Amino acid sequence: MDTQPKPDAKAGQLPCPVWWTAAGLVALLLSMAGRYGFHRDELYFVVAGRRLDWGFIDQPPLTPLLARVSETIGGTSPFALRILSALSIGGVVVLAASMARRFGGGRMAQIFAGVTSGGAGVALAVGHLLSTATFDYFLWTLAIWLLVRLFDGGNQREWLALGLVVGVGLQNKHLIGLLAVAVLIAIVASAKRRVLAGVWPWMGVGIAALVALPNLIWQAANDWPQLEMASALADRSDGPVAFVLEQVGILSIALAVPAAVGLWRLARSPELRKWRPIASTFGLLFVFFLVTGGKSYYIAPLFPALLAAGALWFEELQGTRRRVMMGASAVGIFIGMFIALPLLPPSSMSTFDATGELGETVGWPELVDQVAAVYQSIPVEQRGEVAIFTGSYGEAGAIDVLGPDVGLPPAFSGHNNYWLWGPPDHHGPVIGVGWVGDVLRSICSNTVEVATISNPYGVENEEAGLSLFLCLAPERELANIWEDVRHYN
User: Among positive and negative, which fits the CA dihedral 206, 209, 211, 217?
Assistant: First the structure.
């Protein structure tokens, strides 16, 4: 039996193993950062970072800005882009352990909360890549950590910090706005509504609105494209059953147990009643995303808080039960590592028929080389007027980021913000990449399919098997049909 007295939740230091866990996880993620290659979204973020604005069709500007900072400091490489992501997940480990401490957990609970929050499959997956989901995971966790402190009698001025976190989060992804609304509803419906008394909470709201304002102005000036994006994403939903089942998968299977127990305790336990609005917030958002067709990972940034509460239950387990839970958690984390991180050779993905997001980090240099071969086949006197037109922002990003090294001109696309950046301003041969064959044939009767995209690992990602097209003498310009090629998804 663990008889060690629990430390005062409002004082003292986190156990050393928590810090070692955070450091070890960061080291693991960075050791994997250079394997495989860029993700399609990372290529897009690099290009967006080079064309910074207060907003983009599919996200606010924070992640492209961080891509720009990473590229400026560390150069154009997957490793450089992923440093901030790895550090963010290390931060989640510390915040989760701190929440467990605030909930009244002792040394074992704090360590368990940190290990499971950082080792969950979704944390490993987003920690390996530069993505909006990565910083959502960190910023939501930071926001909930501040709420945990406020609900426990924290300084009311911390509402200002919470407002700043939400405002920065809104500059990363608008989903954190739903978190803020759900928290407000949960507080008003609970006995904790008194925490909204006074000026500080509303000053926090004002700070959040002020920080988010430039992106909201950009959205309004561009006819709110984020709403069209949200509709497109909902149309691609896997359905409510998959949404529920995928929560178990992204928690690395066994970790769903302490997370579920943590949710139950936050909702029902007298010892945790002051934090009951956190359970209500999870319930509200879970139902909302379930009904509206949200992606399964949208709710994931709330898992660290649930795992922190569930860690108290783990600490109470004795003997065999604790060892079984430790073993099951270790197995779940181990499985999650092999799914989320590039531990195996790329060819193993085709062997196990499991590509996922890792599959989108393979094959980009080969695609660029294939496009370069088509470009080199064009008569030298015509190459100065060539436009490369792609079906997706990933293909366009690969051309723009990796293409200059092999002499390729910039890419154009109707996909998301590439459409907003506009068509080529010249009229000449067009190389088509991806599903754009029908589009090219509408402006060029002599369009021919010249190659099939492949990668040397046999990975069946979104590009494998698509075609490359060539039109040497288009009858019309892409600019003539630019409105028709727009697609947001």
Answer: negative
DSSP single-letter state for residue 452: E
DSSP state of 415: B
What is the distance between the alpha carbons of residues 81 and 83, in angstroms, rounded to a whole number?
A: 6
Indicate if 115 and 214 belong to the same structural domain. yes
- The pTM is what? 0.93
Helix (H, G, I), strand (E, B) or coil at 433: strand
Q: Give the residue numbers spanning the domain of 410.
A: 364-485
324 and 435 inside one domain:
no
Whether 200 and 243 map to the same domain: the answer is yes
Check whether 412 has a pLDDT greater than 60: yes
φ, ψ dihedrals at 373, nearest 5°: -65, -40
Whole-number CA gyration radius for the chain: 24
- Percent of the chain having pLDDT more than 70? 95
**Given this model, what pLDDT does residue 286 score?**
95
In a domain, 208, yes or no: yes
**Rounded Cα distance, 85 and 66, in Å:** 10
Q: Please say whether the dihedral angle defined by the alpha carbons of residues 136, 140, 141 and 146, taken in this order, is positive or negative.
A: positive
What local confidence, expressed as pLDDT, does residue 344 receive?
85
373 located within any domain: yes
Output b/e per residue, 238-275; b: 16+ Cβ within 10 A. eeeeebeebbbbbbbbbbbbbbbbbbbbbbebeebebb
User: What CA–CA distance (Å, rounded) separates 34 from 8?
Assistant: 42
